Amino acid sequence: MLSFGKLRSPRFHKKDAKHDDKFIHDYSVLPYMIQYRVPTDSELKAGPQPYANPIKFIFEKGGVESFDWSENRLRFNRFPLIDSNVLAKRSKRPRNVKILTSDFIEDSLYNPNYGYFSREVVIFQPGKPFNYPELKDREDFMNQWLHAYKKYDDRKRATFSQGKRKDSTDKIRMSSQSKKITGSENSTSLENPSLQLWHTPTELFQPYYGQALAKYILANYKMNSFPYGDLIIYEVGAGNGTLMLNVLDYLEQHEPEVYRRTKYKIIEISTKLFVKQHSRITRHMDKVEVKNKNVLDWDEVVDEPCFVIALEVFDNLSHDVIRYDISDNKPYQGYVLIDEHNDFREFYSPELEPFTAKFLRCRENSDTPISQIPDHPVNQLKFVKKLKNTFDPLRNGLSDPEYVPTRLYKFFEILKTYFPNHQLLASDFSSLDKTIKGYNAPVVQTMLRNNMVNTDSYMCDQGFFDIMFPTDFEVMSSIYKEVTGKVCNTCTHEDFLRTWGDVDATTTKSGENPMLELYSNASFIYS
Fold first, then answer.
1. What is d(CA 352, CA 322) in angstroms, rounded to the nearest whole number?
2. Is the pLDDT at 506 greater than 80, yes or no?
3. Which residues fall in a compositionally biased region of kind Basic and acidic residues (predicted)?
């Protein structure tokens, strides 16, 4: 993985007053390499665990600042706490503050002034649907796809580059990387991106992908509500509005009676996409309502039965980071401390933020407690955890990190509180390649000179990097049931589309089916 200058590093050694006027960023030690542990009162009194460790002894004698727990606590308490809601009103990145990991990531992605998604967001739209029965095979589809991108590229006068597709050798696995077009051929897109281009299955496989979802919704609506109630659909993050058009077109053509009773409502956080969606509803003007709002700020009760659609929403919902004491498994909450030099340090506090504490309690009460998750850091053998701390004493007696989906948990709470009679239909990535280290860790990536590059930490200059998380659908289905009290199921992307999609319409002459075979690392959850 790539590590380069935009990763902000803490100073490795204790401050030397003689050199304060000549501060130099130390990029030899990156933020994720050191964990600053904030002790409890009893831990502060007892001091660090006295493991025999010559490596730690060398570091301590060398003046590594993170081993001084009392200094860690003083520094942590000295910096004021700030959150992403406050930062959303600011045009400059913060300094001299501490911030929860989830707020740091949310600010990096969504700050309206410098966040990653505040740039020009473009979602690829093919000029017309692909005629699959006329295509030779999957390779022919890929060539047609890339040709369509090139035409889109020419229209936008930007440089074509490949991204959100992984596994270029057999081209059947969709991964974390986003299709993007940035700058000119010789420009550095990290510094001055002109255009970001994503692709989604809704766009690639239109109208058949949207029709598959329409068939699922229609079958469940007829089973539960028709003819007594209207068909009400909420879509969170609707992109170009293509799914909305495909669903409504299908209902209008095949189920006119249901179409007359349909209301389609979009909740869109992006102002640019909100405007674009508005421009595309002319054909179904009396059916569609678009709200420019973050679904996590939703505060209106919807009592009527409804469907809530969320496609590729979970992956960019912010997470918190937790590490556990290797002796007693006590969880420690991650914060990013940003100093006056804009250097980042990762601090861990024994006091948990409320949503983190609720998520951890909820998981233990669900069908998938930590004891049922073999890969969880807590379940590593104790001697392995001690061995890791022996060879890397900068961990300060803490485990590998876990990234917990606190914003997704909040989304489920919003569904329970404000959409009590909803049915959820969501899809996202169940696994991603080239993630940073940790359990349920994200991919952190950006475009650099028209190439997608990955880095080793989420602690990067805010707004320059996409941060995408995989979803553990087994765990989150248990959390969803625990929070909402509703029964839900999960399935692979292929299984859902094989059940509800028009398989014949998306099958090539060779018998290969791109709609079923691509996005092999995606899944659905539905209730």
1. 9
2. yes
3. 164-173
